Amino acid sequence: MKLFWFLVSCVIVIVSTDERTDYKRSVSITNNHLYRANGMTIANTQTGLMENALEHVIEQIVDNDHYSLEFMNNMFAVPDFFYSRSFPVCEGIQTMLRREIHHHLGVIFPNDPDPNFESYTLIVLAAQRRTVTLEALKRMWNRSIVRNYIYSVHVGCRFIAVFISTKYPTHLSKNVEDVGDQCTISHVVPNSWQITKTFRKFKWTGWKEVIGDDMDDFRPLQPEPVVTHLQ
User: Which range of residues forms the domain containing residue 36?
Assistant: First the structure.
């Protein structure tokens, strides 16, 4: 009987290890697709203007309520987050992101992981993810949030939540609710402490953060420094 349980435990460890390796491969492949998309430009079918391909993909996903905030966190901010405590589920999210890239850009990128991906931890692979997604999100933040571009309140709230998760991965946005011209975003910080922030969209001056309990006291959101080119 002891031998039986020993063999069972070995099988579980092997399966778990294989799933982790498969997921690391999937994260690395998706990182590759994101980097390639960031190096492309496409024509916006509505405006006719050229825009960054990765920004276009992010915008389409944020504007799609089919994707929950937790899914978007896994896509853009923390692929090392063990969503649903299942590597196959997490891998499915990465596959969906690659499909969205293909769907919105009409290109097929090779499914090539980093040759050294097996030696990287998921934390390292997640940091690699944010080196490309955060820069795209910063550019979008400066244009669409600080300068009050075209986003509706609902889409703007979802974008702000994803941006915060990506910039501060230890302060994940867990919930977002929008009512009227403002939204409230809840964050979970280390030691399970939860905080909330409220943002309001003004027609002419862009988004501002509500300070304290006084709903009439606001702080303008500031532009983010961006890197012109990623290597």
Answer: 19-220
